[in-house]
Amino acid sequence: MTACGRVFDIDLGSQIHGLVVKMGFEDDVFVMNALMGFYGKCGCLDLVVKVFDEMSVRDVSSWNTVVSCLVKEYMFGEALDMFREMVGTDGVGIGIDHFSVSAVLTACSEHGAVMEGREVHARAIKFGLERNLSVGNALIGFYSKCGNVKNVVSLFNRMVVKDVITWTQMISFYMESGLVDMVEEVFDKMPKRNCVSYNSLLSGFCQNGDWVRALPMFCRMLEEGVELDEYSLAIIMNACGLHEDKSASEQIHGFVLKFGFGSNDRVESALLDMCTKCGRLSDAEEMFISDSITQNSSIIWTSMICGYARNGDPYQALSLFFKGQSENIMIIDEMVLTTVLGLCATRV
C-alpha cells in the first residue's frame, strides 16, 4: 500500500484493497491506516473517509490521516470538526501527538480560527508537545498568521531545536510586520541557509520598498553557493526594476543569459519587465522578437504590452494586444485588462 501511494498507482492499490477485504484484514488497524494513507496520497478523500467510517478499531494515526487529508484538500472547517470529535467533547477522547497538533494548527491558521488555535496550543502544552520541532513550527505559523508578534517571538526564543523552516518563518514574519531591521540579525544567526531562506529575505526587502539591500544580499547568496531557482531570479529582477537601476539590470541580465536561466517564460517575463522599467525598451524589444524567447506564452506578451504602456507608447501596446488576440496567444487577466482599458481611456 505504501509503495502504491508513492507512485500513485490507484489501479493496483484498489486491487490490494479488494485483497484486504477478501482475506479479512478489515479489523487490522495497521492495514487500514495504510489503506487510508494510500487513498490520501492519491487525492481520493471520499475513499479515505469511507475507509475511516468502516473501521471497527481506530488509533491516533487513523484520525491523523483523515485530519491531514482534509487539510490537504483545503477543507479546514471539516478538519477542525474532525479534530474536535477526535479529542472528544469532554476532552477525554483519543490522545493526540505532534502530527495531530501540527495538522490542526495549519487548519486553524488558514481558517482564521484564532480561539481554536489557542485551545490546540493549550492541549500541546498539556501533552508535553510544545517543544516538538514540527509543533513549534506550526505554532509560529499560526501566531504569525494572527499577527501576534509577542507570541511568535516568545515561542521562537523558547524553542530548543530550530531548523531552516523555523528561521525562514521568522524572516517572513518580521518582513510582513515591517520589522526589516531585525531581519538581517535573525538571518545572520541562522546556522544553515538555503534558497527558500534567501528568497524570503529578498522578497521581504521588495515588499518593504528596501530594494537597495536586495542586490548585495543576492550577491552574498551567490558567494555562499546557494542553488538558485526561478523565484530567486524573478525577485532580484523585480528589485532592479522597482529601483530603476539600469546598470544593475544589465549585470543581472548578463548573469541570467550566461548561466542559461532564461529558459522558461516566467524568467523571460521578469527579464522583459526589468528592462522596460529600467529604460531599456529597445533591449526588451530585441529580446521579444528573438528566437530565444517563448513566443506563444501569454505572460511574455503581457509583459511586453505593459512595458510599452509604462514607456509611453500606447499605440504599440494596443497593436501588440490585438495581435495577440488574433493569434489566440493572449489570456486576458486583470493586469492586461487594466492596462489596455487605461490606454484606451488615454487615447479617448
Characterise this structure.
By secondary structure, the chain is an all-alpha fold. It has helices spanning 2-7, 10-22, 29-41, 45-54, 60-72, 76-87, 98-111, 114-126, 133-146, 149-158, 164-176, 180-189, 195-207, 214-223, 230-243, 246-258, 265-277, 281-289, 298-310, 314-326, 334-347. Helix 13 (195-207) packs antiparallel against helix 14 and helix 13 packs parallel to helix 15 (230-243). PPR repeats lie at residues 28-62, 163-193, 194-228. Keywords: Repeat. This is Pentatricopeptide repeat-containing protein. It holds the Pfam family PPR.
Task: Jot down its keywords.
348 residues; mainly alpha; Serine Threonine Protein Phosphatase 5, Tetratricopeptide repeat; 21 helices; PPR_rpt
